[in-house]
Write the structure tokens for this entry.
Amino acid sequence: MIAFDDLTYLHGQPQGQGLLKASPEDFLVVEDLGFEPDGEGEHILVRILKNGCNTRFVADALAKFLKIHAREVSFAGQKDKHAVTEQWLCARVPGKEMPDLSKFVLEGCQVLEYARHKRKLRPGALKGNAFTLILREISHRDDVEARLQAIAARGVPNYFGAQRFGLGGSNLQGALRWAENGGPVRDRNKRSFWLSAARSALFNQIVSDKLKKPDFNQVVDGDALQLAGRGSWFVATEDERDELQTRVDNRELMITAALPGSGDWGTQRAALAFEENTLAQETLLQSLLVREKVEAARRAMLLYPQQLRWNWWDDVTVELRFWLPAGSFATSVVRELIKTTGDYANIAE
């Protein structure tokens, strides 16, 4: 298995170094659900601003305040404790009377707005996240500037960030131990983290190998292509490659890589052969995913940060602003810019 630090770079290995997250205020995330609350229903959507507390901790505190079970409070995604983040929580509170959430007090947390909503907010049910990052103590400003322009033009690899694999890769190591010993894992959180890390590592390896090819973004027979901004995909055939390539070049379509698991991976013919050959030695993790009935899926190989802009405060400090679709990692953008130092191993995006 390729270590995260050894994955192939799209724009070559960065020359410079810099500090990511010198303070929580240097990493701002604003969640974008892609919809507004209905204004009626048995659920309440609560938009919070938090600093110094993780999402689950806030959700549990909100449940206690509302005098409901913790399982009645949900959220679309976890956000890092050591960052400034805006996100939505959803509490099931049937009845006509609206609780006064302005009285909800928790250190490091502020309620910004709340409203009734008809449906429960489920994991992954968001459009994306807007990021504002401040990178400090940067060396090789010229290299970073050139890379920002290259990222704007060509994107970055859509790798799952190092935080997906846990501190020191602990989640991936747990998955490997589980795959080897075959015993049941009763802790639901560990089970989820380990399976996610296993599948993410296999996806990263496919993308890394693909990026070594000079024609990595050229459509091949049997590729699974995804409509930009959509989850749906279809398989490319040889006789329509030229037309499809034009749409890939225009970013209308994205070439995907496998999120391995049970069932059909999605690719066919030449594209499937490449993915299977890349993972031919990774039988342990593949067997674990099949055994645990994790369904195979697809994920875009490249990531194009939207609304990307940057502002140099001085020669060693740059502010970045961009928007990423749900499931993408800001740290995978930063990885193409600089070798990072600082506390970023637990950023959840």
In short: The first strand starts at residue 17 and ends at 20. Residues 344-349 have pLDDT under 50 and may be disordered. The radius of gyration is 21 Å. The chain is about 30% helix and 25% strand.
